[in-house]
Every structure is written in C-alpha cells, then in structure tokens.
C-alpha cells in the first residue's frame, strides 16, 4: 500500500506541475491563457535485427530519447512477434488497469490483429511478449536502465500534456 501511495503522490505532483506549466500568464494584463496541447510524437527507428530481438531508438518530438527492444518480426503473431511498422495512437495506461504493471506505462492502440501492446520496462526479449521495452543503454539482445528510461519517458509525456500521443515505427 505504501508503494502505491508513494507512486500516486509522485504522479499527482507531476500532474500538478504539468498543469501549472500549461497556463501562460500575460504579465501586463494578468490574463491566463492555456497553452495549446501540440501532442506527443514518438518515433521508433528499428536498426538492429537478430533472431532473438529487434533493437531501435525512440525519439520524442524529434529528439533522441532512449533505446527500445522488441521481439523479432514473426508475421505479427501474438506474443512472439513485434508489431508491424506503421502509425499508431498511444495512451497512458494506469496501474489500476493492469494486473501485471504497478507503474504508469503506455498502451499502443489499434494494432491490427493484436491487443494490449504496451511500452514498458524490461531488459531482454523474454520480457516483451510482443511489447516495446524502453531503456537507457543497449548491447547485443539486451537493454539496460529500463526503469529510469520508463520513468523519464512518462514524466516527459505528462509534461507535454499526456494526451494526443502518436507513435510511428520504422525500420532503418
């Protein structure tokens, strides 16, 4: 219970901070105007393909952010393949919506013939089950510092409004 309360408190602070930044005050007229949510654009460029994994880089609004690790492509088969290249909508997924993730993560929506494709923490392909893992370091079939990457990614997405999240996946 303490773990959930600490997480909730951190999350609420991040939301309040994001909301405070989302209102611009004109210093001369003291009028508050909301900043328009321009959305969040994520791009995954897959560049390393092995029999065990697919490694790429994640860009957030055009800036390189972290590494990704996915399963190799196996005809989009559930639990054994990464998803096809393409464009997807993404949304925040809360711990209360998940039986296995006790932290805020992302849900990739409307993937053809698939469901519950997540962007979450993990270090190797066996942690994926078809999802996208994020991390700060990368080496052959392995990514590291995944928790840090996930926390930073969620923080940035919340700071950018937390809505209107778009994902494009491309192979290099």
Would you mind describing this structure in some detail?
The chain is of the alpha+beta class and 172 residues long. It has a single domain, classed as L,D-transpeptidase catalytic domain-like, CATH 2.40.440. The protein is 20% helix and 38% strand. It has helices at residues 2-21, 146-159; strands at residues 23-25, 32-34, 40-49, 54-60, 63-70, 86-93, 105-109, 117-120, 132-135, 137-139, 142-144, 165-171. An 8-stranded mixed beta barrel has the order 3-4-5-9-8-7-6-12. It has a two-stranded antiparallel ribbon with strand order 1-2. Strand 3 and strand 4 form a beta hairpin. The longest helix has 20 residues, at 2-21. The chain is globular, with a radius of gyration of 17 Å.
Enumerate the spans where pLDDT stays under 50 for 5 or more consecutive residues: none
How much strand? 35-45%
Report how far apart the termini are: 44 Å
Task: Tell me the Rg in angstroms.
Answer: 17 Å
Largest sheet: 8 strands, mixed, barrel
Short descriptors:
alpha+beta; 12 strands; L,D-transpeptidase catalytic domain-like; globular; two-stranded antiparallel sheet; 172 residues
